[in-house]
Amino acid sequence: EPRSPCCCLAWALLIGTMNSLVFLLNLLLMFVIFTIVLLPTIVVVYFGFQCHSQVLHSSARYCKSILDDNSSSALIILGFVIMSPLLVVAMAIYCSLARRLQLLVCFQPYSLALYKGGRWCRRGEGALCCARGCNTQLKAWV
Predict the structure, then answer these.
(1) Which phi-psi region, left, alpha or beta, contains residue 64 (left: φ > 0; alpha: ψ -120 to 50)?
(2) pLDDT at 88
(3) N or C, which end of the chain has less CB nearby within 10 Å?
(4) pTM of this structure
(5) What parts of the chain have a pLDDT lower than 70?
């Protein structure tokens, strides 16, 4: 049965807030995973650009004694070459965690705001999600 307009607005705000929190949690998880996995690339490219004479030309001791322009260029190239496989690894780790934690299933439909009778239930391994009638055969992806 349909909800009253005020109740519908309150539920829509609640569901919108919850969906925004789930989205931010997904974004934070993705940011942390990508930062950790891509850290070697970030460090290598940073030192390559920092010590190259045409870019930043730092006066640090390691730039003068260890890295010249050729080795700085090699670091920059190496960093961009290893970025592609590390991006694939980071995305695989994120997708695996998102699937295990069932984060993508926890987005709530706005039909809960319009009609009474939608039920909150626990699905699978403890992710709090909503489904009409708590159908356990429903999956986010195969």
Answers:
(1) alpha
(2) 97
(3) C
(4) 0.68
(5) 1, 113, 115-142
